[in-house]
Design brief:
GMP Synthetase, Chain A, domain 3, 8-stranded mixed sheet, Rossmann fold, about 650 residues, binds 5'-O-[(S)-butoxy(hydroxy)phosphoryl]adenosine, 19 helices, alpha/beta
C-alpha cells in the first residue's frame, strides 16, 4: 500500500453508521447479494411513506428505470413536517448574510413559511401539481422555503443559478414551460447590492408565454420595476396565508425537480429527478458520507442553483432533521478568514466546499485558519472537480488540523447524490482520491464493451446498475437522455450509465477521477459545454469560426480558452493589438449576455484557421495540447492544412 495514506480518527465518529472497513464491505456484500431487498430495507427505514410501494425496481422500460413504484410520499413532509413532533424548536436553517446579518429558522418556523408559501402558490398563482416553477434566487432562506413549498404541493421546481444571464434564464423558462417565476429584487455580494429582478424582466421580454406571474422576495430593498398584473410581492402576499397546508401525496416516480446542466451540444439539458429515490439517497449519503448526527451543524458552501445546493443544503440535511447553514456572501469577503470565522461561530461539524474555493483560500490566506477555533470540525468535504494534492494537504492540515477526515465526493447533477466517496469514519484516504463506490453503487471502470479496464489505466467511469437517485429523463427529450447516458458503454450486452468521465484504479482498488472525456469543461467545479460557449461567440458579426477548449487554471481548475477565426483581418500582429483587445471585449460582452459571467474566456487566440480534417472535423485534441504547451503527439498529416498547427502554436506562445 502506498505510504501516503491517512486513517480516520475513530474518536471523532463514535456513532458512525459505517464505523470501519469491515462494516463497509459487509454492506457492499449485502447489496451484492440482495440488491433490491437491501434498497427496500433502507427505503422502509428512512422514508415516511403515505402509501407503501409495490415494486422496488422496475426495469421493464430500461433505461427509464422506476424505483418504489406505487409508493406515495411527500418530500416536504419528509424534510419538515415529520420532524415537528421531536424537533420543532431545533434550528433547521441558519442563515448568514453577506454583511454578517443572521437569521435562524427553527423547524416550526420553516414549516410555517413553507406552508404559507405553498398556499400562496396555490391561491394567488393557481399553481397545481405538475406545474413548473422557475426559481431565480439568491442564497437566502426563502429560496429553500420556495423549493420546499413546490415539493409540498407537487409542483416541479427548476432552480436557475443567479449568475446566469437573461438569455440563459429565458431558454430554461421556455424549455420547462414555467407558469410562475420566483425571484428576489437582488441580494448582497462583497458589501454591495446586486440585482436579479431586472434579469427576469429581460428574460420575459420574449417567448415566455407560459409564465403567468412573477413573485418577488425582498432582500436588498433596491428599486425595481413592477409590471401590473404580472408581478407580486412575496412579502405582501405571505401575510394573509394560512400556515396550514396538507402535503400533496406524490407517487414515488413523479418529478420532484428539473435542474438544467450543460452537455456536449449547445442546448442545456433539463435533468429530471424523482421524489422517493432522490430523497432516499440524499438522506443516506448525509448519514454515511457526512456522518450527520443530531447535534451537528452542517455547512455546504454551494449555491442552491447547483445540484450540490439542492442535495446538500436543502434536501439531504433537512430530510435528516439536521441544522443546515446557508451563506449569502463569498468566502473572501471581508477577508479570507470569513469561512473559518463562521466555522468557529456556528461550531460547524461538517464543512463542504469545492477545490476552487480551497485553492483560493489557500492562496489568499494560508495562515487564516490558525486564527480561529476549528475544533468542532469532523468532516471536510470537496466536490466538483479533482482536487490537487497541494490543496488537499493544506485543507487536511491547516483546516482539519490533521484530525478530520476529508471526503472527496465524486458525483454529478445526474446522479442526485454522491457515487464514489470515502466514508469518513471508515475509509483510509489517499490524498486527492475519491476512493471507493458507496455501498449500493455499482461504479465500475470499464471499456466500451464492458471489460474491466486494467489497473493503472484510464477507462470509462460507468454505473452499471440503476440506483434510486439517478436521473429519470431529460425534460422534453427522452431520446437525448438515452443517447447522452446509455449509448456509449455496454456490459453483458446491456447499455449502462456512462458518466462522461474517465477514471483509473490503483493496485489497492482506489479510484481516481481523471476528468471529462467529452467536450465539457469544468470551470471552478461547474460544468460548461464548449458548444454553448462557441454558440455565443459565433454571434459576434466578425467571427467566422471558433473552437473552445479547457485550459489549466491555477484557481478555477480549468479556464475557458477560445481559438477564434475572424472574418476580416486582425490576426495578432503587433500594430493590431488594440483591435484585438476591442474584439476580445466585444466577444466577452456577448458571452456575458448569452450565458453569464461564469462563462467568460480566460484567454483567446485569433488564428487564421482551425486544424480541420479533410472532412471538416475540428481536431480539438490538438488545440487542447497547444494551449497546455504540450508537444503535439497526434498525427497531423490527415489535416486539410498541416501547416496550420505550427502557426497556431506560434500565436499561442506569443500570448504568454
Ligand atoms: C462533473 C459533474 C456533483 C456536484 C458538482 C458538479 C466532476 C464532480 C468530482 C470529484 C473529480 C469531479 C466530474 C463530473 N466532478 N466531483 N470529486 N473529483 N471530478 O456537478 O456540474 O453535474 O458536474 O464534475 O467531471 O462529471 P456537475
Amino acid at each position: 500500500m502506498s505510504k501516503d495514506i491517512y486513517y480516520p480518527n475513530p474518536e471523532l465518529f463514535p456513532n458512525a453508521r459505517i464505523p470501519d472497513m469491515d462494516s463497509y464491505y459487509k454492506l457492499v456484500d449485502e447489496f451484492k447479494n440482495d440488491y433490491e431487498g437491501t434498497w427496500a430495507k433502507f427505503a422502509d427505514e428512512k422514508i415516511d411513506w403515505f402509501k407503501p410501494y409495490e415494486k422496488v425496481l422496475d426495469e421493464s422500460n430500461a433505461p427509464f428505470y422506476k424505483w418504489f413504484s406505487g409508493g406515495e410520499l411527500n418530500v416536504a413532509y419528509q424534510c419538515v413536517d415529520r420532524h415537528l413532533s421531536s424537533k420543532k424548536n431545533k434550528a433547521a436553517i441558519i442563515f448568514e448574510g453577506d454583511n454578517g446579518d443572521q437569521r435562524v429558522l427553527t423547524y416550526r418556523e420553516l414549516s410555517y413559511e413553507v406552508n404559507k408559501t405553498a398556499n400562496m402558490f396555490k391561491n394567488n398563482f393557481g399553481v397545481k401539481k405538475g406545474d413548473r416553477v422557475v426559481i431565480y434566487m439568491p442564497m437566502i432562506p426563502e429560496s429553500a422555503v420556495v423549493m420546499l413549498a413546490c415539493a409540498k404541493i407537487g409542483a416541479i421546481h427548476s432552480v436557475v443559478f443567479g449568475g446566469f444571464s437573461a438569455e440563459a434564464l429565458r431558454d430554461r423558462i421556455i424549455d420547462a414551460g414555467a407558469k410562475l417565476v420566483v425571484t428576489a429584487d437582488g441580494a448582497f455580494r462583497k458589501g454591495k447590492p446586486y440585482m436579479l429582478k431586472p434579469v427576469v424582466d429581460k428574460a420575459l421580454e420574449e417567448g415566455c408565454e407560459s409564465v403567468e406571474h412573477v413573485c418577488i422576495v425582498e432582500r436588498n430593498g433596491e428599486d425595481i420595476e413592477w409590471i401590473e398584473g404580472r408581478d407580486y410581492s412575496y412579502n405582501e402576499l405571505i401575510k394573509s396565508q394560512s400556515p396550514k397546508c396538507e402535503p400533496e401525496p406524490m407517487e414515488a416516480e413523479e418529478p420532484l425537480f428539473l435542474l438544467y446542466t450543460s452537455g456536449s451540444t449547445g442546448k442545456p439539458k433539463g435533468v429530471q429527478h424523482s421524489q422517493a429515490g432522490y430523497i432516499l439517497w440524499a438522506q443516506m449519503t448525509m448519514e454515511w458520507v457526512f456522518d450527520i448526527q443530531d447535534n451537528d451543524t452542517f455547512w455546504c458552501t454551494a449555491d442552491i442553483g447547483w445540484i450540490t445546493g439542492h442535495t446538500y443544503i436543502v434536501y439531504g440535511p433537512l430530510a435528516c432533521g439536521a441544522t443546515t447553514v446557508m451563506f449569502e456572501g463569498v468566502p473572501t469577503f471581508p477577508d479570507a478568514g470569513r469561512c473559518w470565522k463562521m466555522v468557529e461561530e456556528y461550531q460547524i461539524n461538517q464543512f463542504y466546499t469545492a477545490p476552487t474555493a480551497i485553492r483560493l483560500l489557500h492562496k489568499m490566506g494560508a495562515d487564516e485558519p490558525s486564527k480561529y477555533d476549528l475544533s468542532s470540525l469532523r468532516v471536510l468535504g470537496t466536490v466538483g472537480e479533482p482536487i490537487d494534492p497541494p490543496a488537499w494537504k493544506w485543507y487536511y492540515e491547516a483546516v482539519g488540523g490533521s484530525r478530520c477526515s476529508i471526503v472527496d465526493t465524486y458525483w454529478q447533477t445526474e446522479t442526485g447524490g454522491h457515487m464514489i466517496s470515502p466514508i469518513p469514519s471508515a475509509t483510509p484516504i489517499k490524498p486527492a482520491c475519491a476512493t471507493f463506490p458507496l455501498p449500493g453503487i455499482e461504479a465500475e471502470i470499464i471499456e466500451e464493451d464492458g471489460t474491466p479496464t486494467p489497473v493503472g489505466e484510464k477507462g470509462f467511469m460507468c454505473i452499471t446498475k440503476p440506483w434510486p437517485s439517478m436521473i429519470r429523463t431529460i425534460w422534453n427529450d427522452p431520446d437525448r437522455f438515452v443517447k447522452s447516458y446509455f449509448s456509449d458503454c455496454k456490459k453483458d450486452g446491456k447499455a449502462v450509465y456512462f458518466t462522461g468521465d474517465g477514471a483509473m484504479m490503483d493496485e489497492d482498488g482506489y479510484i481516481t477521477i481523471t476528468g471529462r472525456t467529452d467536450d465539457v469543461i469544468n470551470v471552478s467545479g461547474h460544468r460548461m459545454g464548449t458548444a454553448e460557449v462557441e454558440a455565443a461567440i459565433k454571434k459576434h458579426p466578425n467571427v467566422a469560426a471558433v473552437a473552445v477548449v479547457g485550459k489549466p487554471h491555477e484557481i478555477k481548475g480549468e479556464g475557458i480558452f477560445a481559438y477564434v477565426v475572424l472574418k476580416s483581418v486582425p490576426v495578432s500582429q503587433k500594430d493590431e493589438v488594440a483591435d484585438d483587445l476591442e474584439t476580445i471585449k466585444e466577444i466577452n460582452a456577448i458571452i456575458k449576455e448569452e450565458i453569464g459571467a461564469i462563462a467568460l474566456c480566460d484567454g483567446m487566440a485569433f488564428v487564421p484557421d482551425l486544424p480541420k480534417t479533410r472532412s471538416g472535423k475540428i481536431m480539438r485534441r490538438i488545440l487542447r495540447s497547444i494551449v497546455k504547451g504540450e508537444p503535439i503527439t497526434q498525427d497531423t498529416s490527415t489535416l486539410e492544412d498541416p501547416t496550420i498547427v505550427p502557426t497556431i502554436e506560434e500565436i499561442v506562445k506569443g500570448l504568454y
